[in-house]
């Protein structure tokens, strides 16, 4: 298949186009409602808190309610390793992108370039485009990300030693709890007591499919009364996150941020260069058989790394007075650019997949 044919196929795929337009339209809706003062700035923060505390943890946990097989397990471990490796690579390399800046600014921009809003911005988009398996891989990928965000980034930005309260903050985060709980349950499901259940298709018993055996904690099969409300909460993750992003954009001064050249340079690095490097390295390692991964796994990681500035990393800069204005401007510019570039990345990934370059 030629690249032109693959591009046409991608842009005429209703599910892909719908995922892209849903992201853009709901973000624009949040932006419009904020500008009209229908939503306050505080309401946007409340939406974000609900998303991170309830919806995304439900989304992460539910993604692990799936059968385990050798290929998925192998890919999951590759994603876990790559999640640590890519963060280490960028922590070392990213500061050199700002070599002309003073060291204090260079360190801050290096941290901001490495850590994106993978949980709040990335996972909802991955779920919309790549489905449950993508959500599973994104949750596994985030393990390494969170380890470094709450340890190295904290120490680097604060200038202090790692504190116990920050370790507790990391371990008691609802998304972290849901991710580790889901991952453990997914990994041990072949070694725990099983029960025989009828086969469900979209929540309805399929009489023709008979019965099968699953781990007792596979609530998607054994306890629909629990799975269904969790699924409703999980489905809120994307629209709530996108609305909140729109409200945030509507609350900030784009004119002020746009006057900072370094913010535009940072935005280019964050949403174009970083995911491009991720795509090349992950695709290359997979092609060489070093860390073999499918298209879904690689696309998940590219989307996660194409996200704008991580809220926590930006908060570090503001809290510890580490070039707070620069960090705020960079965060806004990268968010605007990410909204523009994300549909392009999704389309590009689908085109690459259609040409067979990623297996």
From TrEMBL:
One family name in Pfam for this protein: Mem_trans
Keyword flag Transmembrane helix: yes
Gene Ontology cellular component list: membrane
UniProt keyword list: Cell membrane, Membrane, Transmembrane, Transmembrane helix, Transport
Transmembrane segments: 16-34, 46-68, 80-99, 111-130, 136-155, 171-188, 232-252, 272-291, 297-318, 330-352
Subcellular location: Membrane
GO annotation, biological process: transmembrane transport
Protein's membrane topology: Multi-pass membrane protein
Name recorded for this polypeptide: AEC family transporter
